[in-house]
Amino acid sequence: MTKRIGFIGVGNMGTAIIRGLGTRNDLELHGVDHNETRLGELGKEFGLSSQASAQELAQVCDIIVISVKPQHAESVVKRITPELNSSKCLISICAGIAQAQLKKWSDSLCPIVRVMPNTPALVNKGVSAVCLEDSDLTEEMKKLIPSVFEGIGQVHILPEKQFDAFTGVIGSGPAYVFYFMEAMVEAGVALGLTRIQATEMVKGLFTGSATLANESSFSVTQLREMVTSPAGTTIRALMHFDRQSVRGDIMDGIFESYKRSKELGK
């Protein structure tokens, strides 16, 4: 049976999820957004039906995805609450908003699923955490909802209490990777490479290294050791990183992100 899934907000992440669902025939796509041009494009490309308001979308859809900025989530949920009932499911991809808060805003009229994707979802290489702890969720929904997000990358079912850890490591993680990439590009420029050369080389380095880690049977530690010859250039660099406590600083930064996520969730 075809389910109707509606997106309140078709910004970058909402659009990415819709694109990931584009080839499925078991879901009927709906959307509402101030950006009518984007809605029209998604309609032409994926058959998405535009709705005039969030309330109308909630009325016609079985699954409602809240993909707006976190500061707008409360007003959106409260606006659509009159259209909710136990047969519907509300999914939030808004960072930092707990399931209990979403339940309160929606008067506990329908089951709630909290999802946290990260930005590589924009190229279908994301890593998403999905919380299915709401006791009102049907078995059908517990199977269907993770599959909605498999179109944009990996999906990991986690209890909500682990979402702050997920945020620290994975949600904020792309920024750490880009930060390190920036430093490597600047080092390359300082050593005489052009910025274009350094940028392309560093991109290739990260793509190739990630692919190797993903496809190899070796652990990341073993892969690092393969590059680290005795008395060579790599061990010299790694020893410097260790003297500067780079590994510990990375871990401490992740812990700071984790703590901030917990603060925002209060």
UniProtKB/TrEMBL annotation:
Residues 4-96 form the Pyrroline-5-carboxylate reductase catalytic N-terminal domain. Its EC number is 1.5.1.2. It catalyses: L-proline + NADP(+) = (S)-1-pyrroline-5-carboxylate + NADPH + 2 H(+); L-proline + NAD(+) = (S)-1-pyrroline-5-carboxylate + NADH + 2 H(+). Pfam families: F420_oxidored (PF03807), P5CR_dimer (PF14748). Keywords: Amino-acid biosynthesis, Cytoplasm, NADP, Oxidoreductase, Proline biosynthesis. It is found in: Cytoplasm. GO terms for molecular function: pyrroline-5-carboxylate reductase activity. NCBIfam families: proC (TIGR00112). This is Pyrroline-5-carboxylate reductase.
